[in-house]
Here is the input.
Amino acid sequence: MKVGVLALQGGFSEHVNHIKKLNHKAMEVRKKEDLDSIDGLIIPGGESTTMGKLLRETKMLEPLRNKIIEGMPTWGTCAGMILLAKEIGGKDNNYIGAIDIKVRRNAYGSQKDSFSVKKQIEFIGDAPQELVFIRAPYIDSHGDDVEELLRVDGNLVAAKQKNIFVTSFHPELTDGLDFHRYFLSIIERAS
Here is the structure.
């Protein structure tokens, strides 16, 4: 199994390292041709506006959207969640628009308002997980087909629709591999 990590901007190297620690191939995705040789894709955290602009400039936006809509398993963390959302609060347009959610950008505040919390998460496993929130978004609303996976302080911070998984937080910034293992299971079920 080969997992692609969008490597235009943001925290892609941490995701690559986590996938390799789980003994799977990881590939940095930088051009549209790279999409043809992967089984699933992680869209990392970073700056969603910059990533969206780079997707357009590299002519990757449409091919990426088509691959995801056709069923390619995709996981968006933080900015990746914003890129995947059908609606972005305060903006007239979206980027990929593949998951039926409305997100609020920087919902928890600025960089100085970043925080982490430990939480036991049923769909991940028995051990408490560290959740790192950095200028994080959360989901304001969603369509009927979207499965709510996790709330923190009443805010929806993880969800899934078909083969698309999104998290507001950054599992790649912890030593834990359980979220990456969960995404690998989504890819395995899809193939």
About this structure: The longest helix spans residues 178-190. The two ends are 10 Å apart (CA to CA). The mean pLDDT is 95.
